[in-house]
Design brief:
Helix content is about 30%, strand content about 20%. The chain has 17 helices and 23 strands. It has helices spanning about 1-35, 55-65, 85-90, 120-125, 175-180, 205-215, 240-245, 260-270, 310-315, 330, 335-350, 375-380, 435-455, 480, 500-505, 545-555, 570-580; strands at about 40, 45, 80, 95, 100-105, 105-110, 165, 185-190, 190-195, 230, 250-255, 275, 290-295, 315-325, 355-360, 365-370, 470, 490-495, 510-515, 530-535, 555-565, 585-590, 590-595. The strands form 5 sheets. Strands 12-11-10-13-14-16-15 form a 7-stranded mixed β-sheet. A 7-stranded mixed β-sheet has the order 19-18-17-20-21-23-22. The radius of gyration is 29 Å and the shape is globular. It starts with a helix and ends in a 15-residue tail after the last strand. It is found in: Endomembrane system; Membrane. Belongs to the methyltransferase superfamily.
């Protein structure tokens, strides 16, 4: 009996030992799998809902999404947002601590623009003589913080009412109201900022000014011959806003300067606008792209710096296009204006610009209109060669951080210079030197079918609330072309490191800019209703995809949408990022990710904020 009890005791000890070894092994395997299941993605960490190690294909695809060339931000404590759908489907879960952006002495910046508000870089500039402090100076790496909301922010006033009035609390900047109170730019009325359609040069209103240009220059043919306009120093963009009635799309731009929030006003109104300046670098537009250039008291010294500012306008103006200049040197006779006018006459003559008309409105405001030549013959016939002619280039150079030229761009005469066909036929007709006709037909058909059969019907987007749209990877502009009959406009963005398709976009009668999505865009926060891209994030290899998504969040209005087309593998990886931002995020047809932004912001707002 004793021997039996001894045997049972030994077996019991053996069982306990086996169980202990098993439990320790299981714990070790769990810890190892948890370790291998964590990925360092530069500035964030994702974890899988499974306890097993991810397959090699997942690791490879993540390397494609993130850059090893950009130094990641410092590590932060992480918070996790896990949805029931993610748990059930085994999707990856995203961990990251989102924080509110701060500038200066820790104050929250509701209007933060990283590449224009880099105070440290601006202070270090050796000179500001040519507006270098108004140009781009981007922090590296690009921030991953979130911009706060102004107190009392609400859904914008819908178009077309927004052209005339916007909510004051959405853009709470009264400085311009006082600064321009005698020029009818903008007024405060109850809870609104009201835009009467006036301006420094629009004493009788912008509509009469636009009609006056048509009267003195019948060849302008608003909305047929003249479709794409660049408005330099645009103020609150009333000129471009009212040209929309004429089927003219205007790229209105001005710097972020003492004219507080003028571009923010324009975009809140639903008018195409962009932050930029004619300084030391070229504008982010293609050569020979605009049908007309306009400057109404835009405060640019065209003859300064060897005439480089006007040479830059010549670069972006289409051969045969017009420059409309309304400024005091045109019609005043004091010493300063007379000197400026003489310098302008000398410079335009040396550039072979023809003075088409010089006239005054009944209110005394004067306008001069120049026309660019359609051939190089005048350039070579000049007695003086100042400014010189630029060397011939086989291919255009994408103007991205490129210094201004001090020479005249030659007109490409391999093909006869032809003005685009009249609008709206222009939208579906591109010169063969830019793109074979069959390629344009295929692209146009694809986007028409995608928009009609999917975007407008299957994605749950409230298109009636959308006015300002951005295509982050625009290609030939097919997405914008497919939306042309809707009451919205599209900013077509062509990545500066990709194929140069922006000339095609302009040739079709659309607008856009070059940009690098590893940096912030030149716009204020909360200025777009829909951000769209096709195959952008999957090809973002030079920087962290989280930096790109943070920038999307900065420029998107609360309650509005992001629409991404990527591979299903990419969509599954980026969807948790949007969920962590409290977006609604749904994958549709295994091809599209539809995200709707909420009003949520992190709660780590410091006391003393002015927002």
């Amino acid at each position: 009996m004793a021997s039996l009890l001894t045997l049972l005791a030994e077996q019991r000890r053996s069982i306990i030992s086996i169980l202990s070894i098993f439990l320790l092994s299981s714990l070790l395997l769990f810890l190892l799998s948890s370790h291998f299941d964590r990925f360092s993605l530069a500035s964030f960490t994702t974890i899988s809902s499974s306890t097993s190690s991810p397959p090699p294909s997942v690791s490879a695809s993540r390397k494609e999404l993130n850059s090893s060339l950009v130094t990641p931000p410092p590590a932060q404590p992480t918070t996790t947002l896990v949805s029931e759908e993610d748990q059930e489907e085994g999707n990856e879960v995203f961990e990251f601590k989102w924080e509110i952006c701060t500038v200066g002495k820790g104050l929250q910046a509701a209007d933060y623009i990283p590449c224009l508000d880099n105070i440290k870089a601006i202070k270090a500039l050796p000179t500001r003589r040519h507006m270098e402090h108004r140009e781009r100076h981007c922090p590296s790496p690009s921030p991953t913080c979130l911009v706060s909301l102004p107190r009392g922010y609400r859904d914008p006033v819908p178009w077309p009412r927004s052209r005339d009035m916007i909510w004051y609390n959405n853009v709470p900047h009264p400085k311009l109201v006082e600064y321009k109170k005698d020029q009818n730019w903008v007024r405060v009325s109850s809870n609104f900022l009201v835009f009467p359609g006036g301006g420094t040069q629009f004493k009788d209103g912008v509509t009469k000014y636009i009609d006056f240009i048509q009267q003195i220059l019948p060849a302008v043919e608003w909305g047929r011959h003249t479709r794409v306009v660049l408005d330099v120093g645009c103020g609150v963009a009333s000129f471009g806003g009212y040209l929309l009635d004429k089927n003219v799309i205007t790229m209105s731009f001005a710097p972020k300067d003492e004219h507080e929030a003028q571009i923010q006003f324009a975009l809140e109104r639903g008018i195409p606008a962009f932050l930029s300046v004619i300084g030391a670098q070229k504008l982010p537009f293609p050569d020979n792209s605009f049908d007309m250039l306009h400057c109404a008291r835009c405060r640019v010294h065209w003859h300064a710096n060897g005439g480089r500012p006007l040479l830059e306008l010549n670069r972006v103006l289409r051969p045969g296009g017009f420059f409309v200049w309304s400024a005091t040197p045109v019609y005043r006779k004091d010493e300063e204006d007379t000197t400026t006018w003489k310098a302008m006459v000398d410079l335009t003559n040396s550039m072979c610009w023809k003075t088409v008309v010089k006239s005054k409105e009944s209110n005394g405001i004067g306008v001069v209109i120049y026309q660019k030549p359609v051939s190089n013959s005048c350039y070579f016939e000049r007695k003086a060669t100042d400014p010189p002619i630029c060397p011939k280039r086989d291919l255009p150079i994408i103007p991205w951080y490129t210094p201004l030229d001090d020479c005249i761009l030659q007109i490409n005469q391999k093909e006869p210079v032809e003005w685009p066909v009249a609008w709206p036929d222009r939208l579906e007709t591109v010169h063969s030197s830019l793109l074979p006709e069959e390629n344009l037909i295929t692209d146009t058909k694809h986007w028409k079918e995608t928009v009609l059969n999917i975007y407008l019907t299957d994605l749950g987007i409230n298109w009636t609330s959308i006015r300002n749209v951005m295509d982050l990877n625009a290609g030939f502009g097919g997405f914008a072309a497919a939306l042309i009959d809707m009451p919205l406009w599209v900013m077509n963005v062509v990545p500066a490191s990709g194929p140069d398709t922006l000339p095609i976009v302009y040739n079709r009668g659309l607008i856009g800019v070059y940009h690098d999505w590893c940096e912030s865009f030149n716009t204020y926060p909360r200025t777009y209703d829909l951000l769209h891209s096709s195959n952008l994030l999957g090809n973002t290899t030079r920087c962290d995809v989280i930096q790109v998504i943070s920038e999307m969040d900065r420029i998107l209005r609360p309650g509005k949408w992001i629409l991404l087309e990527e591979s299903l593998d990419i969509l599954k990886k980026i969807r948790p990022v949007f969920l962590s931002l409290r977006y609604k995020a749904t994958i549709v047809k295994s091809q599209f990710l539809v995200c709707q932004k909420s009003f949520w912001r992190p709660d780590n707002i410091k006391k003393g904020s002015w927002t």
